[in-house]
Design brief:
Length: 236
């Protein structure tokens, strides 16, 4: 069983939330490698912080140090961005960072987080609706509450909204069994954005995208990292 090694990074001013699944197994077993940062998305093989570094010119350290952690936390607070991966723990069929092999997954209650931190208006998923991805698990959460995602943009990055009632939903009595009039006046809209995962395993999917191929044709030096930077920029 691999437990998530980090508590959600949340604070009263947070308006956007980065949502992934589980970090690589070595973070749960506390066997970090040189170049890992002991914080969310700190894998030396991951690209999220390098993407944000490129967008904001942060000059981040990529090392296992207090400085590297403080730099990332300072950035998040400045931009009112929190992090709350949706998986609390899971067993893995193979000891690797892939989400596909997770089983017996225990989820964090992301719906409850949205009700505790009511300024959050955007969830940024670091992956899509494929099995065991963050959007996939969030949809499961919503179904338990009688809620659903409404699509606004179906191509990557996929964009949806969810309408949350003012009152926290009772999962033993889903909202669909309540009168709609009870909630209509105080509905709160939260947007979700499903980005291409910031991991090397998603490079093949990027390579098959017509948008990427078109840019690459006109600019041979353009690569999958550049593509992610361009995709992530509008949402950060």
């Amino acid at each position: 069983m691999h437990k998530h090694p980090y508590e959600p990074f949340l604070f009263p001013e947070v308006t956007r939330l980065i949502v992934g699944t589980l970090p690589p197994p070595r973070f749960s077993t506390r066997e970090l490698k040189d170049g890992d940062v002991d914080f969310c998305y700190g894998s030396r093989d991951g690209q999220l912080w390098r993407i944000l570094d490129r967008i904001f010119d942060l000059g981040l350290a990529y090392e296992t140090s207090d400085l590297a952690i403080a730099q990332r936390q300072e950035f998040l607070k400045k931009h009112r961005i929190g992090i709350c991966d949706i998986v609390a723990s899971a067993e893995r069929e193979e000891v690797n960072a892939s989400d596909h092999g997770m089983k017996n997954v225990v989820l964090r209650d992301l719906i409850q987080v949205l009700y505790r931190f009511r300024r959050i208006d955007t969830l940024i998923f670091t992956g899509g609706n494929s099995k065991n991805g963050p959007e996939y698990f969030f949809r499961r959460h919503l179904r338990e509450c009688g809620l659903q995602l409404v699509p606004l943009q179906t191509e990557v990055p996929r964009i949806h909204i969810v309408k949350l009632p003012y009152a926290y939903p009772n999962r033993k009595k889903p909202l669909r069994s309540y009168t709609q009039a009870k909630y209509r006046q105080d509905e709160r809209i939260v947007k979700t954005v499903s980005l291409t995962a910031p991991s090397g395993s998603a490079n093949r999917a990027i390579g098959s995208m017509s948008q990427y191929q078109s840019i690459k044709k006109n600019n041979p030096e353009y690569n999958t990292f550049d593509f992610r930077v361009d995709q992530y920029r509008p949402f950060f």
